[in-house]
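Minutes, project check-in
Item: structure for the 387-residue chain
Input as provided by the requester:
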Amino acid sequence: MKSKPDRPIFSYRFKKVLALFILMFMLIIPGKITFASTIQIFIDEELLLTDVEPQLLNGRTYLPLRACAEALSATLDYDSASKKITIMHEGTEIHLTVGQTTASINGQEYTIDAKPFLMNDFTLVPVRFISEALHCLVEWEPQTLSVFIYTDSDTPIHAGQFTPSPDESIPQVENIAIEALQQINNIRQSKKLETFVTLSELVSIADEHNQDMAQNAYFSTNSPSQGSPAKRAQAFNLQATSEVIAKINYDLSTVTSAISAWLNDPTTNAILLNPSAAYIGVSAYRSPGSNEVYLTAEVLPTRAYFIDTPQHLTTSEAKLTLNGRSAARQEVITIYKLSNSSQSMYSAKKSQTVTVNNTYFFSDIELWEPGSYVINIANCNIYVTYK
């Protein structure tokens, strides 16, 4: 059994309690993200900051090579031509190669299932393999997506093959959702697009649809019982969402292959790489005893939306107070007075600019006479009947 290095118990426990408190805080705020969107690495209880965010790929955590070596006080040699990596520390010498599953520690060869890879000109390496090879203790906390590494542990080097750690084994549905979101946002960044912000409402819609598909044995964006994505979004007072789905058999496939399939399809590519889209909800669901995982992403196709306001509203008040969220710093709200003869034409309109503070905005809307109105923000519409 691995032993933790001697250290103050309070400090260690406080770090975990703090991480869990942050997660709970995010869970209870309406409209906020429902799970941590990035992995945190703690080296001897100090948060490690890196130029590239830690990555979760196929259930394994990766760090940029140089950041990983420096954090563990190791020296590094990297041959860019052969892509061979050498890490040395206190008599231990590790050799890895980008894209290969073979590695060696002090001349003894190992097979690893977390091979180094390149991303945006950075080399990323498996944290657990390197840390344990340097006699560090590694703990994975899935609730907060935190990796705790203790450098003065007496953890021995593994003998034989490095096998998947039980606490990071695939599939873990929370990690699958995070991994999918992370890969989508990495691709958006590479395309110079803003990364998605996670909405709890969208996660709930995606989660319910995953379970519905698994329990009722169908695979479609339209539910036989709950209807289209637009209808399901109405229950959360959201405008119609765009939805992409995948079914992954982990005996044959991975999250990466599912994301690649989405991006290779023109329809789902347009949803995930929509420059105007800002909000997403990703969820994964695995039926008990099965390696098949349903993966759904719900995308709100605009950068702004109104909070807790139904798409069709009837009011006897001339003044409405609306609030919402936006990924921009300012938004223009336009109020259209619809023509009595046509719901597709307007007889008058006015606009007002609102300032967005920490993604939220508030605005008072004046309806100047009884009738039908459309209130628009960033292509998001709500329809108001003023009686």
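Outcome recorded: The chain has eight helices and 25 strands.
No further action items on this chain.
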